[in-house]
Amino acid sequence: MSGKAISRRQAIGPKREEIEEIADRLRLTREALGLTMAELCRLTGIGTTTYANWESGRTGRPGLGEAKVLRKVLGYSLDWIYEGDRSGLPMRLVIAIAAYEQQNATTVANSATP
After folding, report:
1. What letter does residue 15 receive in the DSSP assignment?
2. Is residue 6 part of a domain?
3. Full residue range of the structural domain in which residue 43 is found
4. What does the DSSP assignment read for 39-87?
């Protein structure tokens, strides 16, 4: 077997870009649902600091147990959280995310206009 050896952490742990993508999806979905971080944490029972760290990408990603809580309470799919696959999301969430993305794209475009 040739090639560069990788550590056990590299083999099983998420890459930085994956953590950032998950953080973006967590933030995007929370904001699309019109929830503050405190409201989301109250609904799910997840600690505010823990959730803030996930959403900022500072410390990893939700474990399977926490991801299941998010799925159950908020309607996320695990594929959405971890992979960005929208196909398993409820239509209300797909619509909310699309509307939020469109609103932010318009805001960014308007702020760039002199």
Report:
1. P
2. no
3. 12-112
4. HHHHHH---HHHHHHHHHTSS----HHHHHHHHHHH---HHHHHH--GG
Q: How many domains does the chain have?
A: 1
pLDDT digit string, tens, across residues 61-105: 899 999 999 999 888 888 998 899 999 888 988 898 888 888 888
CATH of the domain at 78: 1.10.260.40
d(CA 59, CA 114): 38
* More confident: 34 or 10: 34
pTM, full prediction = 0.74
Mean pLDDT of the chain: 83
Helix (H/G/I), strand (E/B), else coil: 36: coil
Q: Which residues of 50-89 are buried (b: 16+ CB within 10 A; e: fewer)?
A: ebeebbebeeebbeeebbebbbeebbbbeebbbeeeeeeb
Q: Is residue 2 part of a domain?
A: no
